[in-house]
Amino acid sequence: MSGYRGRFAPSPTGRLHLGSLVAALGSWLFARAAGGQWLLRIEDLDHDREVPGAAQDILATLAAFGMQSDGPVIVQSERIERYAAALRELQDGGHAYACWCSRSDLEPHAGIHPATCVATPTARTPAWRLRVGGAVIGFDDAICGAQRQDLARAVGDFVVWRADGVCAYQLAVIVDDAAQGITDVVRGADLLDSTPRQILLQQMLGLPRPRHAHLPLVLDAQGGKLGKQDAACPVDAGDPLPALRAALRHLGQIVPPADSVDALLEQAVRGFDIHRIPASSAGDHVAAHNASR
Ligand code: GLU
Fold it and tell me: For residue 184, how far is its CA from the centre of ligand 1 (angstroms)?
């Protein structure tokens, strides 16, 4: 076993579709080709987007597609205390501040937070924002190449804890990647734009920075990102081979002539070539998680 630890972290917002299968299979192939481990995490903090039963359905579908977690499946809704501790550390370090700004307060600033709360504090619970200061974060993506983001210009001081009491995606994801000992984050290119925020949080909390690889998104006929919420053609757990082949093709891999899931996966690992994966720039397809400004 190598020290490689990868993961797939679906949000239970619907059934697994081709887009999420590509992210699952891509992260699984990277891990297996490196002789490493692959771990699963259910990201169920956003109750408004959650579909009852979706988490179990996703796990069962992944198993039918030959992919199972090498360790316990982590469920974010059971880990709130860990996220609260990370928030306290950010507050104690002077990195996070309370903010009562509403969407309309931010309108004159083109949605980018002006780095100080412009609303009048009320009795209402505030959100907590991260002070990004002059941070410019660069990283080398294994598929998309060199990246660089000036956080103040691109996203501004962003929310790490929402006013409705829910830990924001950006904070939960880095707490859990560290807790699961993740060395390599392989996921859809809609999260490329989130990575600098996550690296900044890792720096502030003294957590290790994993390597990153962002996979090409599967787009619908209109050029939009295929989302589980669209109920866009869920993959068929009863007949996994066609979708597995389509996912391999999407990742630019040669599709082996195997006729069982296990044989197909085994041959796909042996033939896995990262250089064949097409680089995609996230462009307009930025994940919904990024909206937490
Ligand atoms: N839970 C996120 C999603 O389903 C993925 C988070 C990640 O891979 O960092 O879009």
Answer: 14
pLDDT tens per residue, range 112-158? 998 889 888 888 999 999 999 999 999 999 999 999 999 999 999 99
Ligand 1 centroid to Cα of residue 103, in Å, is: 24
Ligand 1 touching residue 39 (CB < 6 A): no
Domain residue spans in the chain?
5-290
The reply to whether ligand 1 has any atom less than 6 angstroms from the CB of 43 is yes
Tokens 């041959």 — which residue?
267
pTM of the model: 0.93
Specify the CATH architecture of the domain 5-290.
3-Layer(aba) Sandwich (3.40)
**pLDDT, tens digit, 9 for 90 and up, residues 190-237:** 999 999 999 999 999 999 999 999 999 998 777 777 655 555 678 999
| Contact 76 CB / ligand 1 (< 6 Å) | no
How much distance in Å is there from the Cα of 267 to the middle of ligand 1? 27
